[in-house]
Write a structure and sequence with these properties.
Oligomer: single chain
Largest sheet: 2 strands, antiparallel
CATH topology: Farnesyl Diphosphate Synthase
Mean pLDDT: 88
Distance between the termini: 16 Å
Helix content: over 70%
Radius of gyration: 19 Å
CATH architecture: Orthogonal Bundle
Strand order of the largest sheet: 1-2
Structural class: mainly alpha
CATH superfamily: Farnesyl Diphosphate Synthase
Length: 335
């Protein structure tokens, strides 16, 4: 079992390491980046400015990368696959805008959120606009099955949003509730990125369903690591205050494991939106000193190992090796 290490490594440094793994896709990813910028253009200057603000905040573009790599298992046509990649990244971006409103978040990746720079109303309309543009772009994919999968995914994402709101400061929820929520909030969109990239490339059904499973397991591992880093990272490393998820009432796996200790549970259950920073810092220390971090990492590792096992069942090619490298990287992130 690996342990998280301290010491500053910026998101930029992490992104560079990740990008080296799929550098052979750089030309196609540049194409996608340009398409993203073109797609968020709007007649309304304010809507365009807000959308561009979100886009220029950056991101790992993991979902488009998975779309492209999955497409490498079939008839790879960048013009066809590009629309899927851009659409799924836009859906992810829109969900972040809505999340920031729900969580009243001021920062994302160290920069002001749309709701902070403008207001909640502008943020909600911007998120809705980006969602609409994503769906419009997907109409270029003349595969009814792909649209059915995407529609089901959007339903799950919305349910995940509602569940997160419902479960805020609900300290009685259990691990099963948490897994169900992160499946809908994170894992399913990564899974569908893999599956739809393959479907756009006419990949055999057995293979694209395996790619869905791979993406699901990677997505679960990815989110658990994110939730761990919320306690083990610094504000400079995270681009937001450590422990911010807990302060916003989002009960994550490290918190659920930490609450198995009655004394820690007692302190955590007193958290509310106006809890003093000093108290949050004390709870962070208690969680880090408990076995909650280690237990969470073991669960993440289990999901990661399942993802790698699925890869063994896929045809051998360069994309398969890259998927393995990426899965290991994002499943073992540390500062």
């Amino acid at each position: 079992m690996w342990k998280l290490q301290t010491g500053f490594k910026s998101w930029v440094s992490m992104d560079m390491k990740l990008k080296m793994m799929y550098s052979f896709l750089s030309s196609d990813l540049n194409n996608i980046e340009q398409a993203l910028e073109e797609t968020v253009q709007a007649e309304s200057p304010l809507l365009h400015q807000a959308s561009l603000h979100l886009l220029q905040a950056g991101g790992k573009r993991i979902r488009p990368v998975f779309v492209l790599l999955a497409g490498k298992f079939g008839n790879y046509d960048i013009q066809m696959i590009k629309d899927v990649a851009v659409s799924l990244e836009l859906i992810h971006m829109a969900s972040l805008v809505h999340d920031d409103v729900i969580d009243d978040a001021e920062l994302r990746r160290g920069k002001p959120t749309i709701k902070a720079k403008w207001d909640n109303r502008i943020a909600m309309y911007t998120g809705d606009y980006i969602f609409a543009r994503a769906l419009e772009l997907m109409t270029n994919i003349e595969k009814p099955y792909a649209h059915q999968i995407l529609a089901n995914t959007l339903v799950e994402l919305c349910i995940g949003e509602i569940e997160q709101i419902k479960d805020k400061y609900n300290f009685e929820q259990n691990v099963r509730d948490y897994f169900r929520r992160i499946k809908r909030k994170t894992a399913i969109l990564i899974a569908v990125s893999c599956q739809l990239g393959a479907i756009a490339a006419d990949v055999d059904e057995k293979v694209h369903k395996k790619l869905f499973q791979f993406g699901y397991y990677v997505g679960m591992s990815y989110q658990i690591i994110d939730d761990v880093l919320d306690f083990t990272g610094t504000e400079k490393e995270l681009g937001k205050p450590a422990g911010d998820d807990l302060l916003q009432g989002n009960i994550t796996l490290p918190v659920l494991f930490a609450m198995e200790d009655a004394k820690i549970r007692q302190k955590i259950m007193k958290v509310h939106e106006n809890t003093e920073r000093a108290e949050i810092e004390q709870i962070i220390s208690l969680i880090k000193d408990s076995d909650a971090i280690e237990k969470s990492l073991r669960v993440s590792d289990n999901y990661l190992n399942k993802a790698l096992a699925i890869l063994n069942e896929l045809p051998q090619n360069r994309a398969k090796k890259t998927l393995r490298d990426i899965a290991k990287f994002i499943g073992k992130r540390k500062f």
